[in-house]
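To the wet lab folks,

You asked to see what we're planning to order before we commit. Fair enough. Below is the target structure as tokens, and below that is the sequence we designed to fit it. If anything looks off to you, flag it before the synthesis order goes out.
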């Protein structure tokens, strides 16, 4: 058995119902996961290592997260305050700037840059990690931004045939390249610049 395989629980002894889940364990496990990611990277993280650092048993982790990728993504979501602000100011530009400012704050975090840079190399080699990362970490962010873009279309601020996926890539791509690939801090006006790119590229045609 590898160190990252869940431990099968005995079926001969029935589990006692109603045992409350200790939220302190959740916090300890997620904090330990982040600490190891920052120190050793994704490849250096094991369930055994997380259990030792958090002071819990492996079954305690597996009762909460079924695999290493699921645990890593949960830790990233926990650390990143994943939720995109649900803002509807009545103006697409103001909405996009609010969303982008949140993204700039996230990408300017040194911890986020280090962990993301380490994960990128592993995504292609680990389909399980890639699927979990996309579905739980990236997809909710993209869906929230698409709602902002949809309101812009409905208000006539964007062309009706705008490609939402491409527009999202234009919003996130420059921030990712500057912060993660080049390792440079994002400037205060990055939110405004990227929002204005969308407005200029996809304005309604007269």
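Sequence we intend to order:
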């Amino acid at each position: 058995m590898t160190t990252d395989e869940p431990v099968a629980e005995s079926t001969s002894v029935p589990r006692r119902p109603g045992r409350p889940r200790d939220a302190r364990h959740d916090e300890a496990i997620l904090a330990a996961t982040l600490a190891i990611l920052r120190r050793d990277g994704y490849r250096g993280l094991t369930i055994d290592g997380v259990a030792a650092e958090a002071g819990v048993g492996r079954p305690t982790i597996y009762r909460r997260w079924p695999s290493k990728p699921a645990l890593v993504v949960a830790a990233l979501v926990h650390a990143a305050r994943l939720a995109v602000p649900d803002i509807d100011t009545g103006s697409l530009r103001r909405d996009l700037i609010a969303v982008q400012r949140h993204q700039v704050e996230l990408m300017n975090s040194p911890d986020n840059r280090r962990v993301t840079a380490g994960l990128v190399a592993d995504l292609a080699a680990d389909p399980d990690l890639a699927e979990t990362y996309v579905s739980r970490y990236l997809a909710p962010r993209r869906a929230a931004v698409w709602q902002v873009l949809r309101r812009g279309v409905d208000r006539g601020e964007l062309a009706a045939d705008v490609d939402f996926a491409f527009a999202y890539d234009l919003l996130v791509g420059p921030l990712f390249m500057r912060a993660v690939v080049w390792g440079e801090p994002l400037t205060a006006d990055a939110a405004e610049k990227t929002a204005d790119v969308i407005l200029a590229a996809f304005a309604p045609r007269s």
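Structural context that might help your review: The chain is about 65% helix and 0% strand. Residues 24 and 115 are 24 Å apart (CA to CA).

Thanks,
Computational group
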